[in-house]
Recover the amino acids of this structure.
RNA sequence: GGCGGGUUGCCCGAGCGGCCAAUGGGAGGGGACUGUAAAUCCCCCGGCUCUGCCUUCGAAGGUUCAAAUCCUUCACCCGCCA
């Protein structure tokens, strides 16, 4: 099965320019790129969809380029937004660029003997450009009529307006594609389906300036079965950065996918074969309670992002914390590694042990003491698996396993570790 | 530049001098039922040293015993006109 057929099977094809021509082009290795704008300190799991498609292309023998938008991130993409972005300072964007560069790199192979990956920053070719050059050499090729017709712009005009800055975004992105076409012979740009307009604008520019041609391919916007936005949890987005979303939380995010979504997610996010996914689908339908598909999904993605060792730790932690096993029976090393993944608070041995409310707040599981008190009042506060009551409840020294660790729980699955030092 | 409309808690959106920490919806949280699902039902949802106190209704001043609500100035957004 060829790459395009595989992508279609996984539901990863939204739009493409002449598909026959693209399939033909893909019979030989080509160079392709995807752009990521630094709009946050980290990519989130939604960005993973297209990033993993880029990886699929590399695995199929093509040359992948990941572009980090040091320039476009300073301007702001109007696509898919109904209001103007607030601009970030250059220092912030620079910092985010370097962090995202590292993240993206983890999914690509730079040492592949035949088709090594590349990471580029569009600031490299955009910043030397003068305003006059920009207007004369690039701007001249754009028709405002066409720019206005772009979905991203038209919808913003309806929704109240768009600044000249964001209006110009498509020109910058087009210029990127042109630049990569010239520098690296890049002939395919991938993106989310909201990027279609920007991508084809780039193709136009390549044709006008170079008389060349390239391809565009977009990936559908991932939706959940209930129509809600993918990738958000109570705590906000699920980030790739382990500082922002712990490996434990990352694993739990996938494990807690809804039944209706899990097979679809396996197709989109995993590199399992069709047979393996079909087998998981069968077992899932026969016994959803076992959640084999969920586990496979969580395991594969956590391994891909954080490595096999971390994944094992995280899984062991989940087993110990949720499972039937008694925490008290674990040896200190196992216990410590299980708890390593949890949000935590440390307290001094010398002082009195604070209340459950204070501890859970200190661990950052709730936003305020009021919220913590509310949890207690509502009966969602636990020490280990025992429900506690009363605002003034505090664990005692004997509640600490190995004289060191205690586990607090908020609701069904929010855990915190308390360490006595 | 002129005239008019707007800026309310995470989001949408009521309130238009006291009964306002502020109606309603969404999101979110806890409980029950389960499989660390979904659906459903009940409850909660600014903060704190919590029978009370403190800080919020774009910002800063002012009027008043009392202001999200009235006045002044400023900032930003939208519309119409130039």
């Amino acid at each position: 099965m060829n790459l395009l057929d595989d992508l279609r099977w996984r539901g990863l094809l939204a739009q493409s320019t002449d598909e026959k021509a693209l399939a033909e082009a893909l019979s030989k290795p080509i160079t392709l790129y995807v752009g990521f704008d630094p709009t946050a300190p980290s990519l989130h799991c939604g960005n993973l969809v297209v990033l993993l498609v880029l990886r699929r292309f590399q695995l199929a023998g093509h040359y992948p380029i990941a572009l980090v938008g040091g320039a476009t991130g300073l301007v702001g993409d109007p696509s898919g937004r109904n209001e103007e972005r607030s601009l970030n300072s250059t220092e912030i964007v620079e910092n985010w660029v370097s962090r995202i560069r590292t993240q993206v790199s983890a999914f690509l192979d730079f040492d592949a003997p035949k088709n090594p990956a590349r990471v580029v920053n569009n600031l490299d070719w955009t910043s030397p450009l003068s305003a006059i050059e920009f207007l004369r050499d690039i701007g001249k090729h754009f028709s405002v009529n066409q720019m206005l017709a772009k979905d991203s712009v038209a919808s913003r005009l309806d929704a109240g307006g768009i600044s000249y800055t964001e209006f110009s975004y498509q020109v910058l992105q087009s210029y990127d594609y042109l630049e990569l076409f010239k520098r690296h012979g890049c002939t395919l740009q991938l993106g989310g389906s909201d990027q279609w307009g920007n991508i084809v604008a780039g193709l136009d520019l390549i044709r006008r300036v170079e008389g060349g041609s390239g391809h565009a391919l977009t990936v559908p916007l991932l939706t959940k079965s209930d129509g809600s936005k993918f990738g958000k949890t109570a705590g906000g987005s699920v980030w790739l950065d382990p500082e922002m979303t712990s490996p434990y939380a990352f694993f739990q995010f996938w494990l807690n996918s809804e039944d209706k979504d899990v097979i679809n997610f396996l197709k989109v996010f995993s590199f399992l074969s069709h047979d393996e996914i079909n087998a998981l689908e069968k077992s899932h339908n026969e016994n959803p309670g076992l959640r084999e598909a969920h586990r496979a999904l969580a395991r594969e993605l956590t391994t891909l992002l954080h490595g096999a060792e971390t994944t094992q730790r995280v899984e062991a932690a989940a087993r110990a914390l949720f499972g039937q096993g008694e925490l008290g029976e674990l040896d200190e090393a196992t216990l410590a590694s299980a708890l390593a993944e949890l949000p935590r608070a440390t307290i001094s041995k010398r002082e009195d042990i604070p209340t459950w409310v204070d501890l859970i707040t200190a661990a950052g599981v709730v936003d305020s003491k009021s919220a913590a008190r509310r949890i207690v009042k509502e009966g969602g506060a636990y020490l280990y698996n025992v429900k506690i009551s009363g605002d003034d409840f505090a664990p005692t020294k004997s509640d600490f396993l190995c004289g060191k660790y205690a586990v607090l729980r908020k609701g069904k699955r929010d855990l915190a570790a308390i360490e006595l030092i």
Observations:
- The longest helix of chain A spans residues 90-105.
- Residues 160-161, 225-226, 228, 232, 234, 252, 255-260, 262, 288-291, 294, 318, 321-322, 366, 368-371, 373-375, 377-381, 391, 410-413 of chain A lie near RNA strand B (CB under 10 Å from a C1').
